[in-house]
Amino acid sequence: MTAPEVLEAELAEVISDEEIARVHGHANFGPAITPRQVVNDGVRKYAVGYQGGYTQLTILREHGLITKPAPGSYAANLTKKGKRYARVLYHEDAALRQAARQSRGGEG
Question: 46-81 burial by CB neighbour count: b if 16+ within 10 A, else e?
Fold first, then answer.
């Protein structure tokens, strides 16, 4: 297995592909983004204090990745499960940056 495949498997340990499909239902963010990417982007946003739109917030809540926001607000925090998912994403991002540097002939 390559490093990205290992990290993808780690993400699937936190939230399975079947769970992603079940929670997303008929949500459609367009052809350029997969349901897993919607979750990844949302977790990254909430990890640094930003927030997503209502549909993304609802998906992240359904997965148990963020807390329930106050009425009238989209601001939420990552749950323990959300923090675990964010740690895997962080390692995935670091691995991708390192691979990109190496492909450009950098130190890595």
Answer: bbeeebbeeebbebbbebbbbeeeeeeeeebebbee
The whole-angstrom separation of Cα 101 and Cα 78 is 30
Whole-angstrom Cα distance, residue 108 to residue 106? 6
Which residue in this structure is represented by tokens 């998912």? 85
For residue 45, the 8-state DSSP code is H
pLDDT, tens digit, for every residue of 1-52?
Answer: 776 677 788 889 999 999 999 999 889 999 999 999 999 999 999 999 999 8
What span, in angstroms and rounded, lies between the C-alpha atoms of 66 and 48? 13
d(CA 72, CA 19) in angstroms, rounded, equals 27
DSSP lists the bridge partners of residue 78 as 66
Enter the tokens of residue 17: 């592909």
Farthest CA pair distance, the chain:
51
Sign of CA dihedral 31, 37, 39, 44: negative
